Every structure is written in C-alpha cells, then in structure tokens.
Amino acid sequence: MHFGSLPTVGIDALTPEDFLLDVREDDEWEAGHAEGALHIPMSEFTARYGELTEVAPEGGKVYVLCRVGGRSAQVAQYLIQQGIDAVNVDGGMQAWEATGRPVSDGKGGSGTVI
Fold first, then answer.
1. Which of 31, 45, 52, 64 is most deeply packed, by most CB within 10 A?
2. Is the dihedral angle over the CA atoms 91, 97, 101, 107 positive or is it negative?
3. Which residues contact 66 (CB under 8 A, 6 or more apart)?
4. Parallel, antiparallel, or unpaired: how do β-strands 86-89 and 62-65 relate?
C-alpha cells in the first residue's frame, strides 16, 4: 500500500500489455485515445465501476489516464481505496501523444488529444 503518495509512472514505463483505463469525457475520448484502453468517464465512474472490475486483470495493475494527470490521480486514489492496484499515468494523453505513441480516433484513423 502507498500511504500519502500515489503510485505514478511516466508514459515511457508503459508496455503494450499494460491495462489502460481512460477517464476523460466522451468528447475527449472520441477525438483521440490509446488503442485498447477501457473508457469510463470520471463523471460516470462510480456508477460504471462494475465495467472495470469485469475486465481488469485479476491481481494486475490498472494504469489510469486522463488528459494531463489530475482526474486520473483522483480515480487511481479511489481504486486503491477499493483494493485495486491502480497507478496514475503522469502527463496523461498529452504525454502519450508527445512521446509519439499512437492516438486512435476509434474509426481506423489517427486521432488527436484535446
């Protein structure tokens, strides 16, 4: 457990096998997201929490993303309180895009981070 400090990683620490949870709102997700990430907007998170527990890797880490890291930190903290091994992704989707990682529009094209 981490008390007083939230587990955080940078984009460079992520691998293609890592389980990503994107908590940005629908318009942000539709503009561009990491392929394969689970999308549950922070504004709907507690109501849709079961969607995460159904697909999250048992005993594995959940890497939480938003645009820059504020919302994802809040959701990661909540998940830790629920007993889930959650990690905040520092810099969020802006850092993802800036480091050249692919951003998808979900329609087979290249997306953008808004």
1. 64
2. positive
3. 22, 23, 24, 42, 72, 75, 92, 93
4. parallel
For 53-111, the pLDDT digits (tens) are 999 998 899 999 999 999 999 999 999 999 999 999 999 999 999 999 999 999 999 99
Q: Is the pTM of this model over 0.85?
A: yes
Q: Which candidate in 11, 23, 66, 89 is catalytic?
A: 66
Is 36 labeled as catalytic in the residue annotation?
A: no
Provide the total of helices (H) and of strands (E) in the chain, helices listed first: 4, 5
pLDDT category, 5, cuts 50, 70, 90?
confident
**Cross-strand pairs, 104:** 33, 110
